[in-house]
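User: Teach me something about this protein's shape.
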Amino acid sequence: MEQSQWSKFKLRVNLNTSIKEAYECWATPAGLEKWFLRDANFKDAAGNEKAKDSLLTEGDTYEWLWYGYPDSVMEKGKVLKANGKDEFVFTFSLGCPVTISVYQEAGETIVQLVESDLPTDQETMLQHFVGDSKGWIFYLANLKSVLEGGLDLRNKKEELVDVITA
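Assistant: First, the predicted structure itself:
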């Protein structure tokens, strides 16, 4: 595999829900906390805290915390694009952009995630390509589980480590 092929990955999940509901699971703090995060704090460009049910907009910044991890494991980033309906882009691990596209295909709602601009040096290439994609696979499966059946698969115990559910 060429190094450039390690610089991005694409994952898709089909959901039995509306485009609007799927988009809001990514583009509102409350939506992100429903299936992905323990705490999703966002501020607008002026530094004002965003309400949990508000749609996120370009320029918003975030601090994220996960279940199963202490508060010292925090991701900080920025919303790069949010069109309010079917595309949401944010920075993630190492500042790499993650693009979420939501659309219809074969009568179902598809959420497509593309993480790009991953580093391709040997030291970090596998850690981020494999590590990030592995994490996203679990969380996309959890998104489907929460939206379609209500079952949240996340490990919520900080003392329980090295499990695939966190």
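Now, about its shape. Residues 122-149 form the longest helix (28 residues). Residues 16 and 107 are 9 Å apart (CA to CA). If you'd like, I can walk through any region in more detail.
User: That's plenty for now, thanks!
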